[in-house]
Amino acid sequence: MNYRHAFHAGNHCDVLKHAALALILERLRDKEKPFIILDTHAGRGLYDLESQEARRSGEHQGGILKIINDPSPPASLHPYLDAVRRQNPFGGLRWYPGSPMIARDALRRQDSAKFCELHPDERVALDRAIGGDSRIRIFDVDGYQSVRAFLPPKERRGLVLIDPPFEKPGEYERLADAIADGVARWAGGVYMIWRPLKDETGYAAFLDAVAPLRLEKSLVVSLAVAGPAANTLTGSGLHIINPTFGLSDALAAALPYLAARLAAAPGGGWSLVETEKGAAIRNEAGAA
Question: Catalytic pick from 14, 39, 111, 163?
C-alpha cells in the first residue's frame, strides 16, 4: 500500500466525509441503546497539519481551513467543526481528526468501535492516538474482509464506514462483494462508502452489482470543487445505505455552502439523490 493520508488530511474530500460522519454519529447518540462503529480503512486517527507531508501538499488549505473560522456556517456543519475544534483546544488549526478520532469522541460508555488498518506505521500511530480506550479495538485486518469477520455485531445499531484509497484495480468489485455480504449479515446497519469522483465506469458497475440487493433506502451525494482535471482529484462522493433520519436534509443544507466556499476553479458543484426501494424520492444539484 502506497497511499498515505497525511498528505491529504483536511482536504475537500475529508470535509464532505467527516461532515456526514459527524451527523450520523450525532443521530446514533440520540437513543440510549448502544451502537458500534466499524471503520474498515481507518488510517492514523489524528494528523499534524504542520507535518512535512501536510506542508508539502497544502491540501487542507483548500478544505477545512476555508471554513473553520467562518462565524456563521450552516447549522448542519456544527458537529463536524466542533469535532475539529476539540483537537485544537487552544485555537488555531494544527491537528486534524481522522474518522477514528471523530468516532472515538462520539462514543458513550455503552458504545464500541473496531478500526482496521493494514499499514504498519499508520496502525502504530492509530494505536498511539486512541489505543488506550477500552471501548476500542484496533485490527491488522483487510478492510473488506472485516465486514465478514465482524458482522453482525451484538449491537443492533451502528455504522460501517468503508473508505478505501482506491489505489488498486478491482476496488469496486471488492466493495460490491463486501456490501452484499454486509447487508446479508446486518441489514439494519448504516453503511457509508466514500469514493473519489473518478472511474465512473467502475462506480456504475458497483451500482449494477448492488441493485439486486433491493436496498430499502440510500443517499448518494457528491461535492466537486472544480471541473474534472487530469491527474487531479477535484471531487468526491458518499454512497450511504440506510441513512440516519434527517441526514438528507442536513446535507442538502450544507452542500451548497461547501461547494461555494471550497470552490477552487470553475466547473464544481454538488448533487444529492435519495432513493427508496430503488426509486428516487429526492434529486437535487447545484453549481458552485
Answer: 163
How far apart are the C-alpha atoms of 246 and 238, rounded to whole Å? 16
DSSP codes, 69-122: T-SS--GGGHHHHHHHHHT-TTSSS-EEE-HHHHHHHH--TT-EEEEE---HHH
pLDDT in tens, 153-177: 999 999 999 999 898 889 999 999 9
Respond yes or no: is residue 127 known to be catalytic: no
Q: Tell me the pLDDT tens digit for each residue of 202-222.
A: 999 999 999 999 899 999 999
The single residue listed with the C-alpha cell 484496533 is 138
Integer Cα distance of 246 and 268 in angstroms: 25
Give all domains of the chain, ordered by start, each with its CATH number: 5-287 (3.40.50.150)
Please state, in angstroms and rounded to a whole number, the distance separating the CA atoms of residues 187 and 236: 26
- Measured from the Cβ of residue 120, the count of other Cβ atoms closer than 10 Å reads 10
User: Would you say the C-alpha torsion 98, 191, 63, 82 has a positive or negative sign?
Assistant: negative
pLDDT tens across 18-59, in order?
999 999 999 999 999 999 999 999 999 999 999 999 999 999
C-alpha cell at 117: 488498518
Spatial contact of 102 and 21, defined as CB atoms under 8 Å apart: yes
CB 23 within 8 A of CB 247: yes
